[in-house]
Queue: 2 jobs
Job 1
Amino acid sequence: MQRQLASTALGAALFALAGAVRAQACCTATGSSELGVVGRCHFAVLASQLSYDRGFGSVDARGKYQSLDGSRVDDAVLTLAGGVRLGTPALQAHAAVPLRLQHRELRGLPAATRLGPGDASLGLRAMVVEDLVAGLDLSEPRTLLPFIELFVAGRFPTGRDASDSDTPTQADVTGEGAWSLLGGAQITKFVTLHQAVVATGSYARRFPHDVTGANGQTRRYAPGDEVDAKLAYVNVFDLFWSATLFSTARFTARAANDGVAVPDSDTRRVRFGGGVSHYLSYPYWQLTFSASFDPPVDDFAKNVPFASVTAGLTVQRNFTY
Amino acid sequence: MTKLVAALALAVLPACGSDPEPVARDLAHVTSGKGQFSAAFTPHPDPPTTGDNALDITLRDAHGSPVEGATLQIEPWMPGHGHGSPVVPEIGELGGGSYHATQIDFIMPGYWELTVAVTAHDVRDEFVVPCDVK
């Protein structure tokens, strides 16, 4: 009888643990890799990310990579972000506000370090299809369905535009100066209970704005629209640990000045990275370290002024129902 | 299947291997937009780099005679990014149609243009000088 009881208790504990791991896996793959996005099993999230970006090279319009000689470009960014579900578990809103500390040393110019707000963003996200998080089972068609999320977001020119810069190195330029609106989709498929593949794609319309040069001449500048793609592989080791490998790609169309397209101004940027996430106290406090870089090779990117390596640490507090 | 692979290869090739249109780089013989002046431009350093740069300009009129006493204004501009430099370059006249510009500050590598506006004897015209900043 005692043995039967113990066996039942162990079974119940294992079942509960499997459910928790499934929930953790689900939340890790659907939320924590993106700042301020609420994981599937959470109600809300507050996050703080500190990242450091070090420029080490540049890529010109012909795709030729060259190291940065005699220049130093360092950015430290503190981003405060949060998200909350809106009435229904399928819909959430999220926002992010960056604070940027930028250091620039360029040949022959006085070094400068400036602090200022970056461009803030606000988004809506809806889950339209849900994965069972049971792994793939070809005999059960329902297990083939992934999570599918649709999202829209706006980015606002709360940072300092280059037109307003007053330092020779433009260390004080913390924003693009343009409004932008993006829409996209994310597909997350658990191929096993512990492993997921995440594909994200988005299109951003960047709106024209007036820019004024140092001599007072004003132009109508239209930045090129952007297409972003991200492919990630997530491995959830256990209740507390998970790891991610990812690659991002950004393609920007040609810019235009006063309605005239700028030849050869389109850009291409591909980065690789990875991260490790750890629940300090499940499911509330979560710590994530991530790093990414631009490959320092020719013919990979195009028109990237500062190829860089980036490392970031995120602390987030999840709120459950 | 072979056709599909070939089509995919063709779709990928332009993004991976094509060279952009060549841009005139002969800065020794540049004609202004309306043809009122010609000039030779010599950047220092050559090629230009991020940071502080200078530019020597030898200015001639449409008949090839040196232009003295001209007023020059230079604006660095990065057309693909829609920004310039917060510092206005300074220009000094050396005589014999030669001018020397300093404080030409490029804040990042990439393609820049220097718009050089020239006013001499009530004639105004502009040069656009391409710069591949390293």
Note: Chain A has one domain: 2-319.
Job 2
Amino acid sequence: MRTLKFLLRKEFKQIFRNKALLPMLFVVPIMQLLILPLAADYEVKNINITIVDQDHSAYSQKLISKIMASGYFRLASYATGFNDAFDDVENDRSDLILEIPQGFERNLIRENEQQLYTAVNSINGVKANLGGTYLNRIIADYNADVRVEWVQMPKFNGLPTIEIVSSNWFNPTMNYRFYMVPGILALLVTMIGAYMCALNIVKEKEKGTIEQINVTPIKKYQFILGKLIPFWVIGIVVFSMGLFGIGWLVYGIVPIGNLLLLYAYLLVYLMAILGLGLLISTYAETQQQAMSIAFFFMMIFILMSGLFTPIDGMPQWAYIMTQFSPITYFIKVMRMIVLKGSTFSDIKSHFLIMIGFAVSLNGWAIYNYKKTS
Amino acid sequence: MKDVVLNNISKTYDSGMVQAVSDVSFHVNKGELFGLIGPDGAGKTSIFRILTTLLLPDGGSASVNGSDVVEDYMTIRKNVGYMPGKFSLYQDLTVQENLNFFATIFNTSVKENYDLIKDIYIQLAPFKDRRAGKLSGGMKQKLALCCALIHRPTVLFLDEPTTGVDVVSRKEFWEMLKRLKQQGITILVSTPYMDEATLCERIALIQNGSIMSIDTPKNIIAQFPNHLFAVRSDNMGNLLKDLRKAKIIKSCNAFGAYHHVTFHDDSPEMKEKLMRVLEEKKHTNIELKPVTPTIEDCFIYLMEN
């Protein structure tokens, strides 16, 4: 115990003396939490639209003004024909073409039916998809308006419609930040845990100080604990800063669930992720190698964590892969406890899985970390 | 009493491709200053790492203080001091912090063993709040020695402590070792500098992982089989070529301002014979004198035979 105390004192001294590391540990997560949720937004605005209006009637004008009033679209140009409009798409000035055919108004009234043509530039998949959806919704809305206008004084409602009304639970205003902040916070804690822990141990290898430590009576477990505990503590501090300082004060996200439960899960999660860092450090000889290995894992973990793309939409093999990433579980649990107020019985299985991760990663790392080669 | 014993120690790297240490046996007596002398890559560091329990030998056995380096490694770690060839203290901690840290992990304090490091520490004292990484080479070396000594080890392993250190600091360092020896500490030191060999009580000459000779420096020199002569002339480059061509010469090596030569035949008339040969080759200002061999001469002799 005495030895461990001295090791920890040394470790903290070194961490707080490192002028490059300290801002990395505390300022960067806060900056990222402030910037990322505001920037990473799925709502697409400013979709450029080119309109080919060959009707020039009151009805077509009404449709156009309805589209422009929605706020999603920006009029790139009025084109005289489809080919002109397509030039705009080719030159990346426009994302969408809406063609209103000649006789739109006349045919709509006379034949009670008319067709519109839309073409979507799908190079940016998200933008194209959302733009197309928005446009369809507006046109459908317009269609309904037109119908209501015609069926004046409906004695008998000859047009039965099914209207779907949905309400958003746990995030009623569909605030995107509510969804992103807990996830990004989980990610930041992960980065600190895995990177810092791995780099710190590898630095001792690289500088040769581990040689000097190895000829002392310090035991394997003491050395490893001396490395894990500081980053465990720092992980908790950074998490708290992010949760209360940024999440609560800046974004107004008040955790609904039990904070003790959240922290209990965090402790287990940090153990798992520090184990990953430790494992990386046993394979890497230099800080550069450690950085590259950690980067590789982090990229996969982050992209497959469900932070940006929902896991349920992934193909089966990818879904299975996500189940092997500890981040997936932590992001899920974060959202469950913070937004939904889940209780222990809801996340029991997540707890067990995370304990499994912690035990196996640390066990593997300790097995691999040899004091004598 | 033998403090360090090696029996037929071998070590290979890259799964047997590189033989770093082959069948090395020697022992170091208690309170002895023992030198391991050999060029870079001779296997000195591998031997040190085996003795300090950082490396497992492939074959043979070794013990320090009577404890086996494989079985009893924890006992050894408590009782030896090791100063690696590369500076391995925490560069971002100050001189004092490093010293305190290494004292505390050995369950002792700087105060307790201050008398042992006093002479060395006094020179470091003005820089005690400076970070170790910012010290000069000589100061780093002194700090490393202090840290290796702070728990009063019974055996001290110094791996090339004077490599890359200036002449004055090297001299000082050897003075320090002599004083430590008087305290009864067994010291095993390695160096690539042959001139430092005479400062040890006993030395082992090592080359390509094998020991060539173990004895006191004096005996090793006495075992040099031939008379040794130093030759010089105005044209040293041609002189070396001509000497090597001469049939009466057994060996010839450049050695500072002179070339050191030995003859196949140690009879006195050889000297005149060589003078005649060299004069024939139009060498001017020829100087030829007998010299006592140095460890380097012995090393080269042993290497060639």
Note: Residues 2-221 of chain B form a domain with the Rossmann fold fold (CATH 3.40.50.300).
